[in-house]
Amino acid sequence: MNIFEKCESNVRSYCRNFPTIFHRAKGSIVYDESGQEYIDFFAGAGALNYGHNHDYIKNQIISYLNADGISHGLDMYTSAKEKFLAKFNETVLTAKQLDYRIQFCGPTGTNAVEAALKLARKVKKNPGIFSFMGAYHGMTLGSLAITANKGIKAGTIGTLNNVTFMPYPYGFMESFDTIKYIDSVLNDVNSGIEKPAAIIFETVQAEGGVIVAPIEWMQRLRKLCDEHDILLICDDIQVGCGRTGAFFSFERAGIVPDMVILSKSISGYGLPMSLLLIKPELDIWEPGEHNGTFRGNQLAFIGATAALEYRESSSLELDVKEKELFLKEFLNQEIAAISENIIIRGIGMIWGIDVQNFGGKNFAKSITSRCFELGLIVETAGRNDTVIKILPPLVIDMFTLQKGCLILKQAFKDCLQN
């Protein structure tokens, strides 16, 4: 029995899928203690859009540490926070003509989700929330309440209230007018469902199986919320910060949510950080009404500022589009061609290979396990974990991206022969 099995809780999960001791990492490559290298198509579940130990971001953090910069500051004014706010306001909000207040929440995405739900209910004086089938929003109680997966909610008996799940445009629902259905529910005095304070949604259900919401659907959802005086909250935790190309994933629809939740790659370096962007008229918090000891991660401020500076000086958004075209072509021509029962979905640098009708969960697991043996880290997602989710760092070079995809193809070949 190793030290992890002896001392660490049974709740550990990813280490069971990738059974080695990782030691160092650079860019899109991770190395274990024996020196074996692995191409990273997981990227910290989306927390490493800029890869491992990005030189520019790392050097900015090291310089700050060497200067004995503030390491912990609660929500006090600090130079690190000042620089981040100025850079985010200049290069993201002002550049995109968005008017949001920025709330620094606890260190992870679920903390910002909780803040959004709490504020929406306070603003509207209404406890109800609409979420969507297939949604994933986090592991604390409020976030679990709006998460659809029954398995991860099993231990929360009797605590998940005031949430109604609506159909997302997926599966047989793709030919069903889900927005019209929601509208009918809200207008029908006998529907038995009260109008909510807010509707929370993901533009791409990542953990839900890489399900991309159509542009028209998002536009109609925004219009529906306006017509019924309901707040629209966009959870951009996993697919924001450039994952779909633009900085915010909702930009392609030309909509403006009332609140936006950011985490994962916002710090640029995998450091804990989460933000809630709030339209100014909704910022009705009393001082200290929602707080937390680690809501001001100073090193994350430095990393986030450096990441925004890097975005300014690079062609990252164009690079993502180029790699998107490669992934789309490769997956459709080399993987989907194996069987008409394999479905490819995705956008930007997040793609899913759905094998629910071609071997199901065991086959998907066999593929990711074989990938790991061949030197590729890739995970599963979706209903019953039947979707192989491709999530490389945005900065991965084309050679490494192609090499990783060839490993994926080899894994399919090997598993089909067994």
Can you walk through the features of this model?
- This protein is α/β, with parallel strands linked by helices and 418 residues long.
- Helices cover 38% and strands 16% of the residues.
- The chain has helices at 3-7, 14-17, 43-46, 55-66, 79-94, 109-124, 141-145, 178-187, 215-228, 298-313, 316-335, 360-374, 398-417; strands at 22-26, 29-32, 37-40, 101-104, 129-132, 163-166, 198-201, 204-205, 211-212, 231-235, 259-262, 275-278, 343-347, 350-354, 376-377, 379-381, 387-390.
- The strands form 4 sheets. A 7-stranded mixed beta sheet has the order 4-12-11-10-7-5-6, with helices on both faces. A 4-stranded mixed beta sheet has the order 1-2-3-15. Strands 13-14-17-16 form a 4-stranded antiparallel beta sheet, covered by helices on one side.
- Strand 5 (129-132), helix 7 and strand 6 form a beta-alpha-beta unit.
- The two termini are 31 Å apart.
- The mean pLDDT is 95.
